[in-house]
C-alpha cells in the first residue's frame, strides 16, 4: 500500500459536509489516512496528483459528477474506487460500475459494511497471480488486463474483466449469481442479483456473439458457467 503507516491512504470525495466529516472520523479511527474533497473538480485533481490506495466517490457532486470523475481517473490509474450514492436502481449501479468503479454502495449504509468493502477492494486480486488464461480461442492476460478472441483484442470495462476472470478461473463450475456477486463485487447489492445478468449479457455480446463456439453458459435455476 502507498501509506507507510496504518491501513492505507484513502481519498474521500463527498459534498455533504456533515456526512463527509462523519465518514472521515470513522475511517481515521479505523486506521486509515483520509484526504477529503467536497467537489468533483478538485476531487479529480487530487486523485490524479496524489497516490491513493483507494478512493471513495459520491455520485452526485458539484463541478463534475462522480461517474465522470471515475471515468477520468480510470483513464490513467487502476486505483480501487468505491462509489457511494442514494441512487439504488440497477441502471444507476450499472452506470457507476461501467464508468470504472470497483464497487457501488447505496446510502444509507452501516459503517461496518463500508469497512468490509474497503478491505475487500484493498486485497490483491487473485487474477494477478495467473500469467495467462486460455479457453478455446479466448486468451486473457491478467497482468496487462487484456483480452483476445481469435487473436482480436476485446475491449472490456474493469468490472466486465473481473467477472470474466472469475468465470475463466473456475471452468465448468456452476456459479450462482450470489457467488458471482460476492466474488466479483465483494458484496451483494441489498439482495439484488440482476446486475450479474446485466454483466453476463455484456460479456456475451463482446466475447461470444460473433464466434461459433460459445464459452459462457446459463445453468437454469443456478446461474452461469464457463466452458468449451
Radius of gyration: 18 Å
Overall pLDDT score? 87
Strand order of the largest sheet: 2-1-3-4-5
What is the fourth-level CATH superfamily of the largest domain?
Response regulator
Q: Output the helix-strand order.
A: EHEHEHEHEHEEEEHEHHEE
Helix content: 25-40%
Q: Tell the overall outline.
A: elongated
Domain Response regulatory: 9-122
GO molecular function: phosphorelay response regulator activity; transcription cis-regulatory region binding
InterPro entries: CheY-like_superfamily, OmpR/PhoB-type_DNA-bd, Sig_transdc_resp-reg_receiver, WalR-like, WH-like_DNA-bd_sf
Keywords: DNA-binding, Phosphoprotein, Transcription, Transcription regulation, Two-component regulatory system
Q: Your description of this structure?
A:
- This protein is an alpha/beta fold.
- The protein has two domains: 9-122, 3-Layer(aba) Sandwich (Rossmann fold); 133-226, Winged helix-like DNA-binding domain superfamily/Winged helix DNA-binding domain (Arc Repressor Mutant, subunit A, Orthogonal Bundle).
- 39% of the residues lie in helices and 22% in strands.
- The chain contains eight helices and twelve strands.
- It has a five-stranded parallel sheet, with helices on both faces. A four-stranded antiparallel sheet has the order 6-7-8-9, with helices on one face.
- Strand 11 and strand 12 (223-226) form a beta hairpin.
- It is elongated, with a radius of gyration of 18 Å.
- The model is unreliable at 1-5 (pLDDT under 50).
Set down the secondary structure blueprint:
Elements: E1 8-13, H1 17-29, E2 32-37, H2 40-49, E3 54-58, H3 66-76, E4 81-85, H4 90-98, E5 103-106, H5 111-122, E6 133-135, E7 138-141, E8 146-149, E9 152-154, H6 158-168, E10 175-176, H7 177-185, H8 194-208, E11 216-219, E12 223-226
Parallel strand pairs: 1-2, 1-3, 3-4, 4-5
Antiparallel strand pairs: 6-7, 7-8, 8-9, 10-12, 11-12
Amino acid at each position: 500500500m502507498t501509506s507507510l503507516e496504518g491501513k492505507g491512504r484513502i481519498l474521500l470525495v463527498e459534498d455533504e459536509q456533515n456526512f463527509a466529516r462523519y465518514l472521515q472520523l470513522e475511517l481515521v479511527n479505523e486506521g486509515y489516512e483520509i484526504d477529503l474533497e467536497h467537489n468533483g473538480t478538485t476531487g479529480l485533481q487530487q486523485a490524479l496528483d496524489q497516490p491513493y490506495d483507494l478512493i471513495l466517490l459520491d455520485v452526485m457532486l458539484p463541478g463534475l459528477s462522480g461517474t465522470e470523475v471515475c471515468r477520468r481517473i480510470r483513464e490513467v490509474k487502476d486505483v480501487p474506487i468505491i462509489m457511494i450514492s442514494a441512487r439504488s436502481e440497477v441502471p444507476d449501479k450499472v452506470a457507476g460500475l461501467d464508468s470504472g468503479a470497483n464497487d457501488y454502495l447505496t446510502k444509507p449504509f452501516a459503517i461496518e459494511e463500508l469497512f468490509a468493502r474497503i478491505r475487500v477492494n484493498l486485497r490483491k486480486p487473485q487474477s494477478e497471480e495467473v500469467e495467462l488464461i486460455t479457453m478455446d480461442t479466448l486468451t486473457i492476460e491478467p497482468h496487462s488486463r487484456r483480452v483476445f478472441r481469435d487473436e482480436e483484442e476485446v475491449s472490456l470495462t474493469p468490472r466486465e474483466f473481473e467477472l470474466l476472470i472469475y468465470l475463466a478461473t473456475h471452468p465448468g463450475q456452476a456459479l450462482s449469481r450470489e457467488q458471482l456477486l460476492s466474488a466479483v463485487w465483494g458484496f451483494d447489492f441489498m439482495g439484488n442479483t440482476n446486475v450479474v445478468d446485466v454483466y453476463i449479457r455484456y460479456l456475451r455480446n463482446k466475447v461470444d456473439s460473433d464466434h461459433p463456439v460459445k464459452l459462457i453458459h446459463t445453468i437454469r435455476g443456478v446461474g452461469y458457467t464457463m466452458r468449451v
